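Q: How would the structure tokens look for this protein?
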Amino acid sequence: MSETTPASGAAESTTEPFRYTASLAADIESRWQDTWEKEGTFNAPNPAGPLADPSAGAVAARPHSFIMDMFPYPSGAGLHVGHPLGYIATDVYARYQRMTGHNVLHTLGYDAFGLPAEQHAVATGVHPRVSTEAAIANMRSQLRRLGLGHDSRRSISTIDPEYYRWTQWIFLQIFNSWYDPAANAARPIAELVAGFADGSRPTPDGRAWSELSGLERDEVLGEYRLAYSKEVPVNWCPGLGTVLANEEVTADGRSERGNFPVFKSKLRQWMMRITAYGDRLISDLDQLDWPEAIKLQQRNWIGRSEGARVDFPVAGGEAITVFTTRPDTLFGATYMVLAPEHELVDSIVPAAWPAETHNDWKNGAHTPAEAVAAYRAAAAAKSDVERQMDAKVKTGVFTGAYATNPVTGKPVPVFIADYVLMGYGTGAIMAVPAHDHRDFAFARAFSLPMLCVVEPTDGRSSDPHEWDDAFDTYDSVIVNSADSADGGVSLDGLRVTEAKAAVTEWLTGRGIGEGTVNFRLRDWLFSRQRYWGEPFPIVYDEDGAMHALPESMLPVEVPQVDDYSPHTYDPNDAASTPKTPLSRNEAWVNVELDLGDGVKRYRRETNTMPNWAGSCWYELRYVDPVNASAVVDPANEAYWMGPTEQKPAGGVDLYVGGAEHAVLHLLYARFWHKVLHDLGHVSSVEPFHKLFNQGMITADVYRDDRGFPVPAAEIEERDGGYFWQGEAVTREAGKMGKSLKNAVAPDTICEEYGADTLRLYEMSMGPLDVSRPWDPRAVVGSYRFLQRLWRNVVSEETGELVVTEEPADEPTLRALHKAIDGIRGDMAGLRFNTAVAKAIELNNYLVKRGSTPRDVAEQLVLLVAPLAPHIAEELWRRLGHGDSLAFADYPVADPALVVDESVTCVVQVKGKVKARLEVPPTISDAELETLALADPAVVAAIAGAPVRKVIARAPKLVNIVTG
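A: Here is the predicted structure in token form.
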């Protein structure tokens, strides 16, 4: 019988009305999707609350499996076949888990706030809510067609006011918290306020708390709050009209979205004090079942380093504080460098150059202020990456100020230079040019002194001015570090580690430093100058003091505005400042509220939260989506996410998504979850226990002679080349997507072959964590497998069953149970490609056998069910079962039938095969050796020669050495 594809026409043959074709697949799939939806097949009961199911028995006693995909962003372009790869995989695993007795929570929501929807709205004039909701509806329809077994009751959208009400509520929990180092946890800010009020905790300036104004109290608490507003250096992107987090800026200093230039600017912004959790974010990684590569990325991004904080006094000004990992080299600090953005720069710059100032330190300016201003403007135009590049010529300018080295008592000049960033340490360094490569280059460029304080071990002289580069080592002895300052410390003769401890102790005793831990991680920039985002639940009174809105006033809904486009500027206008779209709605911004002390006039915060906010906690809403009184019921959170012996930190059982979110979403979500844990809202310490990063589906990209992509679907292949509209084009591998004009819609594949074929093909393309190319010609292989499966159970002519009722013979049972054993292990290990291969092998065995025993057919259908659920449900029903197989027991292998009755053992004499023996798989090495030496063919090959050595590797090999 022909195995042609639907496109050929033969697949729709009227002579075989019950053949498995695209039209029959469509009918089967539509019917079963309707049935699942009507019967709520995939609705997972909770142990408490509205979603509790009394008929489900003791839910809390059932094993559970919480399976999640990373949030999709709904695009108006819809899905291409690369998008559902992870969704199909989690659905396969979820179906397998249900069939192994688990109560499975599996759903999908939509991350719908953010810049793409806003930009689309600006371009089309369609409100972002309208376009986003239409995109969600389209995406839901496409995903439904794939037969994904989601609990639709739990699906959420971040733009739903009932969802972002709780996003705002969580923000307030963070805002109203501080990190208590003694408890190593977040505590309510009210406890801190009580300490200031009763005098047990002094205020910074010693005044009574009652004497401070509202603004002054804001400033004091802002230094403690986990969410705070402060004027900070930010990544300002004029081309987008908003500030960006560090993670949203590319390596070449441009915006990840739009590729616009990004500049450093100082603006008042909302920040999240994620740095307070640096140690816990690193240490708790050890409790997670995550890929080591992702753990390493997070550890590197957090960047924990131990060292010392050291204060360098400045005459007539505030001391400059540095963080150094090498306090042992403090005697060698001969100058200092501040980042151009450092807050102390303006206060230390004198009116005129000191008399002894070198001309090459002035950068041609008449005054220090002029030099600093010019240099700052130049540095602002560079990205952080450009500033950190190992440039051959170091640039900088003298501030005109001097600080005092605390151990030598000597004055050291203070420079600003772009190679020092505010993003690390304190934004200031003590420069030890003899033992730091960048400091060495800077000192050479500006004729600054250098002192060797770590004894060279490579034979060079002791004078750094004669060196070609710095000498940098942790394994040596400290020199030239005696106590030259009054009451100083002597480090001479100590090794590096000993010297670090000694000088740190001395600094601590003097109150001018202390041992400390520093992180590369910076506090999270948490505000955007956009319209389409969650409003902050914060208002300001007429004095400018901030007030958190009470829970009863949540949600603060996104208001209607006539113009929701961000105010953008010339992309290169670094001096511009943002204007927020929400500020255009005066009636919304200026409100009268009663916050407990009578009706007063307030001004709303007009920044919005970043698009990361809604995805920081959505796993909790999946657990309890209709709870109107709490972010999550403790009983439901403890059941689905609570710590167990298998997952000591708790969290989602399986989280599948792209590795590109390692230091964005995953880090932010962990931070939010830990705050909620500290405050007693959740029992789990971590949000996601097991993480799996799926690969991507790639596709050929075709480009014309200008290098522009052309539609892949219109390419003609001939004469060994590729042509579009008669013109030759080039082909290369690339991501699948609309911009590269190579996207393939899943709807197209479903129409040509059916959803089960698409599911099966995507799972069979290769290991789930590896990227793989889309090959439209290979899809037919999965389609043919399903046709053969159908024929093994159903007659194509009559539609009647063709299975036989006689029990399967032993060879067939062995083939079945080997397949069960292998597929079951593959399913548990997310090795779906090899599971498909084993199912095909078993099905082909039945094709060759000529008939299919019922007991084997039913087991095969159950094995295939997670992968191709529609055809499996249909065959299960035709085999006489009234209930859905979604909760049928997944087959279990009989160990006795998995092991072969006999194994072929190869016997070699002097490296050449002389016999093959059929032996029991349990045979021992000694028994196998005896049997091999007795075999007539082996005896003949030995021909009486002495046997020098016999190597037996039961049950498959014997090697005999003679001579």
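The chain has 28 helices and 31 strands.

The first strand starts at residue 64 and ends at 69.

Upvote if useful.
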